[in-house]
Amino acid sequence: MNKQQNKAAILYATILYFCGFFLFLEWLYPLKDISDTNNIFIFIIYTMFCFIISALQLKWWIGFLLKGFGLLFILNGLYFNVPIVSAMWIEQVQVEFVFNIQALFSQQWYYLTPLFRSFLFLLLIWLMSYLLHYWFVQMKRIFLFVLLTFIYITILDTFTVYDGAMSIVRTFIVSFIALGIANLMKELSQESIHFAWVKKSPVWLMPLVVVVFISSLIGFAAPKAEPIWPDPVPFIQSAAENVGSNGSGPVQKVGYGEDDSRLGGSFIQDDTPVFYASTPERHYWRIETKDEYTGKGWVSSSDSEYELQPNGSIDLETFSSNVETERRDALVEFQENESINKLVYPYGISQVEGLEGEEAVFLDQQSDAIEARRSGEVTNLTTYQLTYDHPSFELNELRESSEPYRDELLEHYTQLPDTLPERVVDLAEEITNPHETRYEKVKAVERYFASNDFEYRTTDVPVPRGDQDYVDQFLFDSRIGYCDNFSTSMVVLLRAIDIPARWVKGFTSGQLIGGENATELYEVTNGNAHSWVEVYFPETGWVPFEPTQGFSNLSDFHVDIDNASNTDLPQTEDDALEAPERNDLPEQPESDVPTDEAAEQESDQTDGTNFTFKWWYAAILVALIVIIGIGIYKTRFRWQTKALAVKMKNGQDAKSFQEAYHHLIKLLRHYGYTKDPDQTLREFANRIDIHYSTDEMGQLTSYYERLLYKNELNESQLNELTQLWKNLIKRIMG
């Protein structure tokens, strides 16, 4: 009887504990949607591993060693390219921990590396496996965690992109089962009821199962009223006018703002639509330029002087009259309450139409900003039509540009603060000295940001402190940032070698959502706010350049074949922006488990669960785990490939294809095919195709670049890409 009683207690305790496991998974699932956490399934596997170890109730030191080994194994697979516990591995671990501990003590949280944050997150999972065992199995107090889980899912479903519909259903089912079992076990314990009826005990659980099943069924089938307040986020954002706007704090909300005097820091993504544009082609939308760099950001060197533009005819000469142009029209419609007090316009704007009554437009020649006014007061135009002359710049003319700059222009647009560190000037000269012409120097600076360990990132972006220069900090310290960092740095580097350049802000083209005939309809959101660079060429005028990783220059460039001196045609503007995403972040070491707070298991408790392990049992177990671990590590590319294949099959989207392509690059590197630093993705793909006698790598790379630069992939193409990827993987792995 006692043996049966113990078995029943263990069974119920195990079921209850794994109900806690499934509830905890509901805390992990949203991370892939609300954060930049990649490979979430690896954290889920470690969670399962820790919960199983805790459920077995091994001796505390055995559980500690096993969980610690699992933690190191995962970190090594994610972040290390050297053998575990080798001399180089230990050295990297030491460097990593010293750096991150210093960042912790100095409260510079944004400097914490991804590896160290993963380490802390795995420690949290380790701790939760112990705490949930204590709450669910020993104390049987589970209501608080159930309530917190419901609140957590509700908040994420309301205020983030995460869809918690199915999560709520799963939590409801698991919670009712857990509450029922916990209450049953409490009653049995308090009333000292014996388990002689253990074989009949499933009958006692039938009412619980029936209630949960019927409740869930009714919840699915019952008619549901539409929500009175479907999405409170836009209302809250609009009510909190300036909260999270572009201020001096480290975290801002992405979008257009007028104050650029202090740049830096992270920002929160915001996909709220700002305006819709009907236009024949994709192009950037200018708003204004800034000409004076302060060391911290951008300001205008003089007060704005707006001049009336009669009848909406805009007198703005961004480029010279010898630039080829084509007359185009565009329609801009701002969302309600999302108007900007300056007009957005394409390059070559010549006319603003759709003005009513006393409305008129004014131009500031210094900043190229255009305002609309009604009866002398600045007003926001909700809808207006533009006529513009779309330019196409002749590349040979840019390459051969040698006419001297006007003194006034040179002095104005090569301004730099006296506090600019000398090493910034030295770097500019180092980048451009091998090149002779202006255009080649400009392109060399633009290309510089496509490699050299620079990374496009919008989170954990540091803010220069004290007297630290914004550009110097980006170029030599962090190398992490977004468009403001890249564009400002390019302008400063060009000015350092006396090439006139200025900083431009506005919006990218946005997302194509429709169109008819020769007109395309684009949705432009706050997330499309952007900054880029304009460089002055005496014979041409101001020419846009794009240094930011992941963005391509949407301006048109052409070659005049008749006037070309030879048949060696120049490359296009998009040749330099390769910008691969580095999701694997090598070089970031991580290490051992610090505290022994997570393993206080009473290994000789709970009735019939007295595991009397001798030392050689433990040795055999550790040896088996080591062997299994080595086997998993050796075959990691195979199971990672299978996991990605399943993911692509279940959800074919652009994000899963990007992950699959990055995995393909890592797999090729593992098999000895490393991409050279000066080699483009296309050249590398051609090399792979030649070796395997196929064209699949080239096709995949072409689609990858199209996705990276233009975000153009449809469902049929994703189906084709999945098959190409699988075929190439089979060739590589045999």
TrEMBL record:
Q: Where is the Transglutaminase-like domain?
A: 475-549
Residue ranges crossing the lipid bilayer per the database entry = 9-28, 40-62, 69-89, 109-130, 142-162, 168-184, 204-222, 615-633
Q: Which SMART domains match?
A: TGc (SM00460)
Q: Which organism is it from?
A: Oceanobacillus profundus
Q: Which UniProt keywords apply?
A: Membrane, Transmembrane, Transmembrane helix
Protein name per Swiss-Prot or TrEMBL: DUF4129 domain-containing protein
Report whether Membrane shows up as a keyword of the record.
yes
Span list, region Disordered: 581-606
Question: Where is composition skewed (Acidic residues) in this entry?
Answer: 587-605
